[in-house]
Amino acid sequence: MPGPVRITLDDYRAVAPRGAVDFVVRLAETVRGRRLVHVTASRYGGGIAATLNRMLPVVNALGVETTWEIIVGTAEFDAGARSLALALHGTEQVVTEAMLERLHATCVDNATRLPLDGDLVMVHGGAPFLLVDRRPDAGRWVWRGHGDLSAPQAQVWGFLRRFLPRYDAAVLSRRSFAPPLPIPRYLIAPAVDPLDDRNRDMSRLEQAQRLDRLGVPRDKPYLVQVGEFTRTQDPQGVINAYRLVKKRHDVRLVLAGAEPADGTTVLDEVREAAHADPDVVPIVLGGAPDADLNALERGATVVVQKPLRADFALDVACAMWKGKPVIGSPVGGIPDQIVSQATGFIVSTVEGAAFRLRHLLNSPELIGRMGAAAREMVRHRFLITRDLADHLGLLAHLTK
Amino acid sequence: MTLMPFVFHGCLAVRELVGPEAWDARALLEGIGQVSDEMLFTHTAGTMLRRTVQGDAWPNDFALWAATELGDQALAERLAMVDVFDAGSLDALRANLVAVFEDHLHRGPVAPTPAREPFVFLRTHVVPVPLGVTASTLREFRDGLAVVDASALFYHVVEVRYRLGRDRGDFAEWTEHGLGRADLAERLARIDAHVGSLERIRDRCLGVLEDGLVPGS
Predict the structure, then answer these.
(1) Chain B closest CA to A291's CA: distance in Å?
(2) 3-state secondary structure of B210
């Protein structure tokens, strides 16, 4: 059953920390009448769009007028914007001067067309970054950088930096993701929505039906890692950890993720491992996989999230929200989410992951205790209600 | 009979990265010597606002960084025991932190160990939010405290002591001067805010107030 289509702030009362919804209502009263504008490259797909789709009706209902504008360009602009996004996150791209000029020209054109006259204008990501070159004098403009921006491609960053002083501030997701900037840098961590398909409550029947359809037998405990089948997500490392555990515990390993766009080598290797051991279960997700991931995480005994490199990695918070201890690597935003030895474990090696898996599998009461602490940690620090408050707080601070 | 009703406020911290960055214990010591009181508060008592329900392993950011990024368990443990509330003032807190670092560096290797990730100083801009909950009696106070956002605990128990330079929080002040219950005020002021979480502080405060509601208490 899909979640309700139209969510109101009151719907979060059942899941948010006590007093948190009233806090958001009161905070909104302090900024009522001010206007917030978000600008992104797309209204669909990805965590930012999903969050804004959920947040906007709620914020508007609170009396804070909030709009969401989309930058529009040609197919060439879209391709250039994709390269720009990758370059900002440190993946070297071929970006020509002509591409950068095209990005600039498209932003200038959009700036004349879009209603960007908010008290606070928040520009998300790389594609609309250059809108700021034609910003009006009134209002405050902030650039919202998502993910790890600590090592952008120098040539691209050099071009964008020239326009940074036109912004009043930047908002980043964590300290280590922030490049040096000539403007104030604020921190807002991303959050999960407890009422969306990935995180909503799910009946045991629906969970069982989904696991059956995914081909995950329910006759023994299983471990799960969610992540694309790429070297970066290190599924082979997780398989090796599982093999060290398997000697003592009869468990299954589920690896669930999307097929990478740039080849299937890693997926082939995982399938080969699965061929040799039927308790290794690779699941290639497609379409709208959120409810299936929800079922997989709920059914798991322990969740592993052991990428070699990561952005904030909110998959960790998604699993924690289901009351699961997570064994994660010390990369990206994972250490912000796991309090090691309290809500899960931070590990650096295959052996470390295997040791902590055995530690937990030998102590079912610890799984329950850590899982409960993990859910409470997410409830207080990584739910959309906190994100909502942080955005309203930023609006209050920057437009006071 | 009370003079003024208690007005509950919550708060939100807008966090701003301001630097400087420290890549080892010596650089962090220099940073602690230079940064503003406000930034010192942010990284010590200010971390309580993040500890709403789950007490983090370390009660301040300096200890957390020493443990996780420097891998220096001994330094982390010593920094963890520098209690902002016992220190009495931020000047004294700064002096206590500097003393721990100097002693630790004196005993350690000549070249300090480099960290995996630098310590970056933050400034927090506290946005106070009136919560629309007031109390004129002990019962109303107990009922209000039971339902307000956890940030109210931070605002009234932790932040106010820094903002107004007082040695106890608003709850103790109001129960004594508003309600005339010095007995409860003394117990509220004794609650240890250095370790644990805001929800634990709430539970303890509620326990004291419950006791105060017992007839003849």
Answers:
(1) 28
(2) helix
What's A204-381's CATH class?
alpha beta
**B-chain residues within 8 Å CB-CB of A19?**
10, 131, 147-150, 152
Q: Where in chain A is the domain with CATH 3.40.50.2000?
A: 9-191+383-398, 204-381
* Contact map slice: B 85-104 vs A, CB within 8 A: none
* Alpha-carbon distance A65 to nearest alpha carbon in chain B (angstroms): 20
Torsion, Cα of A145, A148, A151, A157 (10° steps): -20
Residues of chain B positioned with their CB less than 8 A from the CB of A394? 14
Q: Is the Cβ pair A343, B54 closer than 8 Å?
A: yes
Say which of B10, B16, B132 has its CB closest to residue A185. Answer: B16
**What are the start-end ranges of the H helices in chain B?**
25-34, 37-43, 61-65, 73-80, 84-87, 90-107, 138-147, 151-153, 160-164, 170-177, 182-190, 198-213
Chain B touched by A377 (CB under 8 Å): yes
**Candidates B14, B50, B151; nearest CB to A23:** B151
ipTM: 0.89
Mutate to test the interface with B, among A185, A320, A329 (most CBs of B within 10 A): A185
Which DSSP string corresponds to B71-126?
Answer: --HHHHHHHHT--HHHH-SHHHHHHHHHHHHHHHHHHS-SSPPPPSS-EEEEEEEE
pLDDT tens for the 400 residues of chain A, in order: 444 467 899 999 999 999 999 999 999 999 999 999 999 998 887 789 999 999 999 999 999 999 999 999 999 999 999 999 999 999 899 999 999 999 999 999 999 999 999 999 999 999 999 999 999 999 999 999 999 999 999 999 999 999 999 999 999 999 999 988 999 999 999 999 999 999 999 999 999 999 999 999 999 999 999 999 999 999 999 999 999 999 999 999 999 998 887 777 999 999 999 999 999 999 999 888 999 999 999 999 999 999 999 999 999 999 999 999 999 999 999 999 999 899 999 999 999 999 999 999 999 999 999 999 999 999 999 999 999 999 999 999 999 8
Nearest-by-Cβ selection for A175 from B50, B120, B149 = B120
In CATH terms, the superfamily for domain A9-191+383-398 is Glycogen Phosphorylase B; (3.40.50.2000)
Q: Is the peptide bond before B20 cis (omega within 30 degrees of 0)?
A: yes
